[in-house]
Each structure stands twice: as C-alpha cells, then as structure tokens.
Fold each of these.
Amino acid sequence: MKRKTIALSALSCVLLFTSCNKGKENGESYAKLSDVELWSTYSSEKVLQDNVEIYDNIKREPEISLKAIRGEEEATQLIMTSGDKEVKEYDVTLTDLTDGNGNVYENENIHLYHERYTFVDSASEYYTTAGYFPDCLVPFENVKKLGETGFAANNNQGLYVSFDIPEDQ
C-alpha cells in the first residue's frame, strides 16, 4: 500500500484574521491587528497565557505547514501575543485551500479552537512554574457567539488548529 503525503501550507490561505477590536471605546485605547504578534508552534507545546517572554526558542513563523496521510488528523497552534494594549476582540475566518491545479482541501475539514486557561498557583513535578496554563479547547464559533474573544495586554492567546485529512483527499 502506497502512502501519499498531503502537505498544507500558507497561513494566509487558511486563516484570515479579520479584525482585532474596534480601536477605541469610551476613551480607552485597544490593540489593533498590527499591534499583535502572531506566531506558530507545535500542537504539543504548553504556552502560558501570562508569560510572553520565555518562548523565543519555540516561536515559528506565523504560518501553517504540516504533513499528513489520508485518514489522519494533524494539528498546530497559532499564538497571538498582545503588547501594551488589551485586545478587545478578534475574529478568524477559515477558507478552502487550493493548490492552483484544481485540488481543493475544504475548510469543513479544518477545526479551530480557542484555548482557555487555568491558573496553577505553584510549581510541581509536572508544572515548572506557576501561571495560566492552556487547559481546554473550545470551538472558536462558541467563544465568538459569547463575545469572549478578547485578551489582556501582555498576554498570549492560543488558537489550536486541527486538520482532518479525508480518506479520499
């Protein structure tokens, strides 16, 4: 049996960050999309919400590049790091991937999750430091409906992106 590898790349074709807040509200200044650092890392990395300074060794370009075989699921993380301003809200739009030869990877096979965090108050055998650790993945659309896509200044917000590769892809 011959295994074929399917490669997916080009973040701009997969996720379109369509907004990051409204700029100002009631005299308060919020981050704009250009104020937010976007980067990627492996799906297995634990990126704390409240520690933005320790990740230089795992930061990758803000793009998605993965290899998978038919019937497999692969995932990656996209991390948004805010600067000195709060991100009031953000939005993400999924699009189909095309290779220019008429082949399409449909966006219904891409699953986007907003990472939620839980506070760990002290280091232990498993946790090397205290802080807000990623704890659960909530479908992005659910978080968006609740209006809870914002995050504080000087924080990370993770997005977990999963790709299901259909048997007939």
Amino acid sequence: LYQHQEEAIRKTIIHGRNIVVATGTGSGKTEAFLIPILNHLFREEERGSLLPGVRALLLYPMNALANDQLKRLRKLLSPCPQITFGRYTGETKEKEREAEEHFRKNFPEEPRIPNELLSRDEMRDNPPHILLTNYAMLEYLLLRPQVCEFFDGEKARHWRFIVIDEAHTYDGA
C-alpha cells in the first residue's frame, strides 16, 4: 500500500474516523475506502450478522464511474458470494429478467456473478451490502416510499459508510 492508503485505512478501521482522500488520478483512492468497507463486511460475516441491508453507499457523479467500479467489484467479489452489491441508477431495470438481458447486451465480456444484484426488484427485496448510485438517483430514492427498504425499516439499520467519489464536482444545496 501507499502511505496515504495505509493512513486512511488505519484511521477508518482502527480509529473509526471519517476521512477525506484527496490525491491524484490512479493513486489508489478506491483501496482507501474499499478495504475498510470489505473489512467491516468480513467481520460481520465472522460474527454471523451479515444480513441483507446496505452497509456502504458509493456515490458517483456519473454512471460511467459507477460502471467502472462495478467491473472492479465483480473481479474482487467473485470469490465472496456472501457480499452483495448492486448499481441503482436510471439504467437499472425493474425486473430481474430484463436486467439480466440488459447485462448480457451491455457487458458481454463481463462474468455474471450471483452476488451482483442487477434489478431494482432484487435490490428492494434484499438490499445489497454495497450500493452504487449517482446523486440524481439518490435524491429520487430518498423521495420514493417504495424503496424505503434502503433507508427505513429492519434492513436499513446497518448503514456504516458513505463514499462520495469526485466530491469536488458537486455543487449546489
């Protein structure tokens, strides 16, 4: 690990601190937040308390960045079927079958792994541990009662991490 990654990971895992990682493109910001998230999920699994419900929200300014992160998560989490993840954006299909077709059409070279939740229905029924979205969809989700499983109720009591990628691009209220 680079020094900034190690410092960020230690502050998050050992000291329970909030962090801001500001460093150049390709310098490993993702590892600085992903390692603490995965550590938390693996510890929950060890305790037998890894139930459906969002633990980490990864917020991106554009779908392209969320899609890049999905590719990374597929590789990383393919040997870890107990950890679920899903992208909930305007591109996410409602029903499982149409989501599967969309995935095959748009990501023909990517493997389909069972812990990636592809449809909105799947994610509402069993919220993923890691939820990727963009700021426009996050606002939409917060205003829609039918997706309250992410933010309200028994499956919503596990929130731990909020990652705001490219924070310098956000402005407004």
